[in-house]
Write a structure and sequence with these properties.
The structure holds two protein chains of two kinds.
Chain A: H1 3-8, H2 16-29, H3 35-48, H4 51-63, H5 65-73, H6 75-81, E1 91-96, E2 101-106, H7 115-118, H8 123-126, H9 128-133, H10 138-144, E3 154-159, E4 164-169, H11 181-185, H12 190-194
Parallel strand pairs in A: 1-4, 2-3
Helix pairs in contact in A: 4-5, 5-6
Chain B: H1 28-39, H2 46-54, H3 58-63, H4 66-80, H5 86-91, H6 110-115, E1 121-122, E2 135-138, E3 157-167, H7 170-176, E4 182-190, H8 191-195, E5 204-210, E6 214-216
Antiparallel strand pairs in B: 1-3, 2-3, 2-6, 3-4, 4-5
Helix pairs in contact in B: 1-4, 2-4, 2-7
């Protein structure tokens, strides 16, 4: 196994595209799937969900203290207020970074990830390297992302072992007072909401 | 099952190496596999899908890309569920005599279907055994079937931090399709409890664990 193969999804067996196509044909012919529904699903994940949804949630939490309270108390309901929800986001919990606590989300057993607010996970989140190390060496993992925490900052790792999904609320960057919600949302990165980056 | 998928704490699996461009799908077939898995009648049981991927032999699992694993598990679920036959796979076409089903997901329902809340919360069969603040030990269990109790937590003592309610129990649901709801708890373990004295004294790992995985400590 080369790293390229594992981490970048490149150089699969040459015939897999044909095998997938053959299975799709069989499923369509048998009425198990509708090809137009398949197109719509791909379109949904390419264009309708993604980390910009989560960024709007975070920006609202930064600017509206009452929303932030609702988000911490019942993340699913607060996220639904902004119109987001659904598969792989049925049971949401928002966890806040502070000056003394940093949160990091992983799924060691597979690839659980909050689709409605972050879209589909990047390849590294699903990789054996991240899944194996985030729980035992979170500081080493963060360093690989260029994120170095002060020694007295506590790391809380969240291993998504059930259908509960975790969203990290990063700390609002200094010097952003007075910025409007849209401008703030543009500062929120996907890795910030997984916890591998600080903003 | 004690498979290679249960990899929390394993050393030597390489650098994380994030991509610079991070395409959502690296090839068109990956997007098709994702869509097939979501639209397939087999999607009704997410736990069975996860278990099917765990059943991929360890050396093969580690060598496969993510969507290769999804494709292989989908193929197996369709065969074992009787949706598709070996003969059809070999011929790469449907048996012309086979009855035609109605797709579970119609195109106009995709957005609604993907955004519909499919809760895993169920009515509780009995009162919760544990309360917030209680110390619990993850039991030393090694089931050969599907489980969501990672090996690295087994035998370790943590504290109940939240009670999520009774949720569909994957250890039963993956194999039978029966919900068998059990209480689900957020349990926090110190990193030193999990990994010993060299772990950082400030750090912790929290897991969502079902009641049958836990005993009073």
């Amino acid at each position: 196994m080369s790293d390229d193969h594992d981490h970048h999804g490149q150089s699969p067996p040459a015939d897999i595209a044909l095998r997938v196509k053959a299975l799709e044909s069989i499923m369509v012919e048998k009425g198990l799937v509708d090809p137009a529904a398949l197109d719509a699903i791909v379109d949904h994940f390419e264009h309708k969900v993604g980390p910009r949804n989560g960024a709007r949630v975070v920006a609202r939490a930064w600017t509206d203290p009452a929303y932030r309270q609702r988000l911490i108390a019942d993340a699913g309901a607060a996220i639904a207020e902004l119109g987001f929800g659904g598969g792989q986001g049925e049971h949401m919990i928002a966890v806040e970074n502070t000056a003394t606590v940093h949160n990091l989300v992983v799924c060691t057993l597979c690839s659980c990830y909050p689709w409605p607010v972050l879209g589909l996970p990047p390849v590294w989140y699903k990789s054996s390297a991240y899944r194996s190390r985030a729980v035992i060496d979170p500081r080493g993992v963060l360093a690989e992302f260029g994120t170095v925490l002060a020694p007295d900052v506590a790391i809380r790792v969240w291993d998504s072992t059930a259908e509960v999904r975790y969203l990290v609320i990063p700390e609002r960057p200094a010097g952003t007072d007075g910025l409007e919600e849209d401008r703030l949302a543009a500062l929120v990165t996907r890795n910030g909401m997984i916890g591998t980056a600080r903003l | 099952m004690n498979g290679v998928h249960d990899m929390g704490g394993t050393h030597g699996l390489g650098p994380i190496a994030p991509e610079t461009d991070e395409p959502l799908f690296h090839h068109d077939w990956e997007g098709r596999v994702h869509a097939l898995v979501i639209a397939s009648p087999t999607r009704a049981n997410i736990d069975a899908g996860r278990h099917q991927r765990e059943l991929i032999p360890g050396p093969v699992y580690l060598a496969m890309t993510y969507y290769e694993k999804w494709f292989e598990a989908l193929r197996q679920l369709l065969l074992s569920g009787g949706y598709v036959t070996d003969e059809e796979m070999a011929a790469a076409r449907a048996d012309p005599a086979a009855p035609k089903a109605t797709p579970r997901l119609a195109p106009q329902d995709v957005t609604r279907g993907l955004s519909r809340l499919g809760s895993y919360l169920r009515d509780a069969p009995a009162p919760a055994a544990f309360a917030v603040g209680e110390r619990v030990r993850a039991r030393n269990l090694h089931p050969t079937g599907h489980t969501r109790l990672p090996r690295y937590a087994r035998g370790r003592v943590g504290v109940i931090e939240r009670v999520h309610g009774a949720h569909v129990f994957p250890d039963t649901h993956a194999h039978t399709g029966v919900d068998d709801p059990r209480w689900l708890y957020l349990v926090r373990f110190t990193s030193r409890e999990l990994w010993g004295p060299d772990a950082d004294e400030h750090d912790s790992v929290s897991l969502d664990l079902w009641e049958p995985y836990l005993e009073r400590a």
